[in-house]
Design a protein that fits this description.
The complex is a heterodimer of chains A (110) and B (113). Chain A is an all-beta fold and 110 residues long. Helix content of chain A is 0%, strand content 59%. Chain A has strands spanning 4-7, 10-14, 19-25, 29-37, 43-48, 52-56, 59-64, 69-74, 83-91, 99-100, 104-109. The radius of gyration of chain A is 13 Å and the shape is globular. With 113 residues, chain B is mainly β. Classes of the chains: A mainly beta (110), B mainly beta (113).
Chain lengths: 110, 113
């Protein structure tokens, strides 16, 4: 099945710093989503981005489907950005479930 | 409410008991998914319902797990004879036909003692 790898697994930042999170996937996809899991466990939708570039405030994401990777950029990080960021994909020939990466745990220090 | 809702939010049960977890998808969403997240693990798929089609049960870890969806809306995940390794957060997601983005509920934290 399709493999999803995220890097780095852990990231510690000082408030105000910028960061880039990466998601590599092993096959063509028809869905790629980035989520932020907050300390209460809720998965917050950040981006639906199977291809192209999107921006939402301090966050932006780019997916290069032909090269099978996606990047999540966080600029001017805040302590509230802390948590785990998950990338999830759905195989291009599927109508079903998402396959999740293991996540990047981000800690932003004041 | 506009989002996916799940109940209960927390459930503590004794080993060997049966539990039922409920998911109420976003109105109009015909696809419903169950996932679980064990401590320190990623999210794993359990089961998928799409309209009136037979569910995709390929992710269920054992025959102690089952799920149903009544009237194409609310779904119940049942775990029989719970084991300690069933302790996890159980998440439900839904989406509309032709729309791939999945929306997740807040989850049910299950603890088996």
């Amino acid at each position: 099945g399709i493999q999803v790898e995220q890097s780095p697994p852990d990231l510690i930042l000082q408030e105000g710093a910028n960061s880039t999170l990466r998601c590599n996937f092993s096959d063509s996809v028809n869905n790629l989503q980035w989520f932020h899991q907050n300390p209460w466990g809720q998965l917050i939708n950040l981006f639906y981005i199977p291809s192209g570039t999107k921006q939402n405030g301090r966050l932006s994401a780019t997916t290069v489907a032909t090269e099978r990777y996606s990047l999540l950029y966080i600029s001017s990080s805040q302590t509230t950005d802390s948590g785990v960021y998950f990338c999830a994909v759905r195989y291009g020939g599927s109508q079903g479930n998402l396959i999740f990466g293991k996540g990047t745990k981000l800690s932003v220090k004041p | 409410g506009a989002g996916v809702s799940q109940s209960p939010s927390n459930k503590v049960t004794e080993k060997g008991k049966d539990v039922e977890l409920r998911c109420d998808p976003i109105s109009g969403h015909t696809a419903l998914y169950w996932y679980r997240q064990s401590l320190g693990q990623g999210l794993e798929f359990l089961i998928y319902f799409q309209g009136n089609s037979a569910p995709d049960k390929s992710g269920l870890p054992s025959d102690r797990f089952s799920a149903e969806r009544t009237g194409g809306s609310v779904s119940t995940l049942t775990i029989q004879r719970t084991q300690q390794e069933d302790s996890a957060v159980y998440l439900c997601a839904s989406t509309r036909v032709g729309v791939y983005e999945q929306y997740f509920g807040p989850g049910t934290r299950l603890t088996v003692t």
